[in-house]
Amino acid sequence: MTKAPVEDRGTSSASSSPSSVPGVVVTPIKPLPGAENAGKPGYYTVKAGDTLIRIGLENGQGWKDIARWNNLDNANLIEVGQVLRVAPPSATAATETGVVARPVASSAVVPASAASTPKPAASAAVAVPAPIPAPTSAAAAASSEDDVPFIWPASGTLLAGFDEARNKGYDISGKAGDPVLAAADGRVVYAGAGLRGYGNLVILKHNNTFLTAYAHNQALLVKEDQTVRRGQKIAEMGSTDADRVKLHFEIRRQGKPVDPVRYLPAR
Questions:
Q1: What architecture does CATH give domain 158-262?
Q2: Distance between CA atoms of 95 and 248, rounded to whole angstroms?
Q3: Of the candidates 231, 146, 148, 227, which has an alpha carbon nearest to the alpha carbon of residue 182?
């Protein structure tokens, strides 16, 4: 049996380079898509076991938005080491140029009005001072993003509380078919069973800061891209990918799971 040629990657001499051997074609290693953005704010490097759904959940975005921002024809085809944009293009561009900008909640990119409105020229005789921004404007914007009036998504008792290492949300008891409610107004960014460990799952995006997740349902009553209102029935409680009937509920702030006790009303 004839052995296939072996590429010698040594550098001892130019004559031993495979490119100098007749009939041996050296194919250069092609960099993975987005490699030039690795490590930049607003980008994510794909790891083994990742799916676009999980990447979206852990970065506070909808998987369809990420697919669109990265021009992915097939959302199931991502490679380990590939670098994906996980923030709206306007947000990453502002970060890279040092300009602070808040992305809008919709998927459309809306340019800042200040950038599109020309400023009147100052008179040569009169000095016109630059307007001083209100000192509380940034704080007020951040506060409005955090000010989401969440409600409990189910009426059952608490089976397991938040533990950042072991339980990224609340487990709430109930019977099969009990209503699962939207904890706040939002848009459905995922509805399906493609995330291991969550069963039939609904993910809602409420604004640029918050997502909520509702897992283990027996039936899903909403579709992706649908707008829902706080208190709307979005699923029926079940035991898919779980050891018993329960609702696993998560609040994620900028993709990071947070303790729901900080946001849910006392009961």
A1: Distorted Sandwich (2.70)
A2: 35
A3: 231
Which amino acid, 19?
S
- Hey, is 162 helix, strand or coil? coil
> Going by C-beta distance under 8 Å and a sequence separation of 6 or more, which residues neighbour residue 243?
none
Query: CA-CA distance, 21 to 121, in Å (whole number)?
Result: 69
In CATH, 30-102 is 3.10.350.10: yes
**Six token digits for residue 13:** 């001499």
* CA–CA separation, 168 and 252 (whole Å): 9
pLDDT of residue 63: 95
Domain ranges within the chain, ordered by starting residue: 30-102, 158-262
- CA–CA separation, 164 vs 32, rounded Å? 32
Q: Which of 143, 155, 133, 153 is nearest to 209 (CA)?
A: 143
Give kind and range of the element (H or E) at residue 97: helix 89-97
Per-residue pLDDT, averaged over 55-82, amounts to 94
pLDDT digits (tens, 9 = 90+) for 219-261: 999 999 999 999 999 999 999 999 999 999 999 999 999 999 9
Rounded CA separation 82/22 (Å): 34
For CA atoms 144, 146, 151, 154, give the dihedral sign: positive
